[in-house]
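Lipid/polyisoprenoid-binding YceI-like domain-containing protein structure dump, as promised
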Amino acid sequence: MRPFYILLLFLTTIIQIGAQENFVKINGSTNVSSFQCTNSKFKNEAYSFSEKNLPNIILKVTDFDCGNKMMTKDFQKILNAEKYPEMTIKFLNFTRNQKKFLAVVEVKMMNQSRKYNVEFNLENNKMVGRKNVKFSDFNITPPKKMGGMVVVKDDLDLTFSLSTKI
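structure tokens r here:
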């Protein structure tokens, strides 16, 4: 019977850890394919979204993973990870509007800051928000590869998924 309890404890721990996984995804595309770079290596805790205690998330650029070593290296090079090792996502304001949550979020990378209005939904105890942004918002020229045959598009989809205490 004891092995059963140990297994049950182990599975419960795994489920709780998986349920609290926080991540930021950046989805983009080229004229050939699409890509997704994810960072889930920051505080794995439940965030508070009260007016007095809004999240300020610091992401290491080198923690983004695009699922392909070469693409990950290129992505980190585009964001100049050596000179600007961190990206910050700071919640400036957060309000509830019926079933939706509205936030003003400041994204800072490469010494450039931009504020965005982001709509969040509560999904399985996580605040999930999506926002279309552009490389050019941060004065980044989308790269070209293979002598210009592969062109990265300026448009990006930013997705936040943060465990919450709401």
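The first strand starts at residue 23 and ends at 29.
lmk if u need the other ones
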